[in-house]
Amino acid sequence: MMEHVPLNFPFLAAALLVGISFYILIFKRNLIKLIMGIGMLASGVNLFLVALGYRAGGNAPIYTDVPEGPMVLPVPQALTLTSIVINVAVLALMLTMVILIYRHTGNIDSKKSRILKG
Amino acid sequence: MDKLLTYSPILIIAIPLAVAFLIPLISRAGGKARNALVIASLAFVEFLVIILARDIYLNGIHIYTLGAIAPDLALPGGVMVPIRIILEVDAMSIFMGIIWATVSLTAAIYSLSHMARETGQTRFYTLSLLMVAGCFGMIFTGDLFNLFVFLEITSISGAALIAFRTRFADAVEGGFKYIVISAVAGLMFLFGVGLLYAQYNSLNIGFLASVMQYSMLDKIALTLFLMSLTIKTGMVPLHMWYPDSYSVAPANITAMLVITSHACMYAVFRVCFSLYGITLGVAALGWIVVIIGLLTMFVGVTMAVFQTDVMRFMSYHAISQMGYMWLGVGVGLAVLGNPEALATYGRDAIGGGIFHILNHAMYKPLLFLTAGALYHRTATRDLNKMGGLGHNMKFTLILYIIGTLSIAGIPPLNGFASKFLIYESVYQFNPVLAVVAMLVSIITLASFTKAFQSAFTGPQLPEYKDVKEVPKPMLIGMGILAAGIIFTSIFPGLVLEHIVYPATDALINQAAYVNGIMGGIP
Question: Is B244 on the interface with A (CB under 8 A)?
């Protein structure tokens, strides 16, 4: 049951995910790890959005076999779905580009595969 | 005609989107049919933007509610909160809309010749039209989450277009940097949207503005919005990706990307003025924007001086010119809570910044397109390898001179008109700021003279003896922008009065924007 879980727990988890992903984005030089970092950032933000959808005492907005009482507005869930779809596209595009970078330079270390400077 | 006007906000977004996915089908009938479709659809969008603009200047804000019985029904049946996605087009949005419609049409005409030698043109035009649709969405939407979605559409298609010439390693690297930066910025923006939704249960900018408390969470959300959007515009501490990405894209795409940066800047203004507005009645935020603006213009121009890659050189100048707009609007933001100062010089400062967006949106794409013309004929971007091209490329030379004089702010060209407005109004706020702005303008002229000298003047080089003038579509594309520059130079007062100041007032007047959605509800 929900009462046993502290209400802030999902938000803390989201903050932790965002924090870790920023650490990865800043300090990791492997491009694949960088993409994983962005994936984690996306998960953190999505978790945050989904957690917003919870209202104490509200029902999930599914119309089959619904219990008595108010229903929550399904906007955060819709936002999260959209955001997930967008992130799939972004991650796929980034991975494609890493493949191309590897073909051109033979390296996926951002220090070594870098051409543009100045 | 009335129907067309009523539905024009959504049609302007939907037509490029639909045509983008029609293109693979139509191109089976041949390249000519595809090109005709692209140009025809963009020309029709331009026509729609113009009739919409005329209506907005006459009758005020135009809203379109998606999925409602009547398009202008923002709050159906006594609901107090707008629940549908609403497009809200005011004078500032349509100002950006006119710019984007014109530049995308110009870039499309230019690309008919510039991209003719590339493979995969069908995909190229599909992605370009997706970017057109995405950026129009960013400009017209009145909904924060919708803004995020369109921001991502613009970013994804933009990154794919930057890396379009995948045979070059630098193009792929530029595209990768762009998509990484855009993804991080987009997610930060989404986080901010979540913070606002958590408190006010709505995503509509007008509604949020009417209930804004300016609590601690709102301040965090504001910081996230500003950071994410200013990364995307290339403000100085976070500008490193900007020249890398913009210099490797095809020139017609760079010309469009400059305007997508302006669209992100527009989103910053929307957030600051329309969403937070009068609750920001403290000078601190204005000062932050002003100082970052100063840094942006100064660092941009000093980095530009010693570039040898012509596209990179112009990208740094694009960063530097953005600084002027931040400076002008920042001063306006700093005095937003002080009606007296706002009336004396604040409105002029914002007007100067916005006028500079218009001018920059004409001369910077023009300069990028001339750089593309040089690349088209010499197959190099290195200024040191060029020389004596003025002998054979006379029209390109003239167009380059028009762009250069305009960016350096030489009277009587339009760059001077907007910069002078900024100097004059900023001087009353703080004289030091105006002095730095003038210094940057001088360095700009110096570095453009250097680039001009190394590309166009001097004796003809043997390897470029047979260089011809670029094909007609490229000249027509550049010519449209040059004509715009000359028109604005001759009638700056007309443009200021009919396009720029309505946009300025739309930004300052937060109540009008809120009323556009909330209507009769007090």
Answer: yes
